[in-house]
Design a protein that fits this description.
Layout lengths: L11 H11 L1 E11 L2 E12 L2 H10 L13
Antiparallel strand pairs: 1-2
Subunit structure: The gas vesicle shell is 2 nm thick and consists of a single layer of this protein. It forms helical ribs nearly perpendicular to the long axis of the vesicle.
Keywords: Gas vesicle
InterPro entries: Gas-vesicle_GvpA-like (IPR000638), Gas_vesicle_GvpA (IPR047870), GvpA (IPR050530), GvpA-like_CS (IPR018493)
């Protein structure tokens, strides 16, 4: 009995489509201190999604586009 190995390749377009469809959240907290003195603190929350995906999940938790910090700029 022969073993058949199947390798599926994905291209960049499929990966971007999946990320925009499902969304991705990157949450980072970085603190740099020296001898107990805090020098730099960075807090970042990055959300990458399509507008449709954002609106779908934002409405589920009660947010609107007007509530978003995007509208402040």
């Amino acid at each position: 009995m022969a073993l058949i190995k199947s390798v599926e390749s994905t291209n960049l377009t499929e990966v971007i489509d999946r990320i925009l469809d499902k969304g991705i959240v990157i949450d980072a907290f970085v603190r740099i201190s020296l001898v107990g003195i805090e020098l730099i603190t960075i807090e970042a929350r990055i959300v990458i999604a399509s507008v449709d995906t954002y609106l779908k999940y934002a409405s589920a938790i009660g947010l609107t586009l007007a509530d978003s910090s995007i509208m402040e700029y």
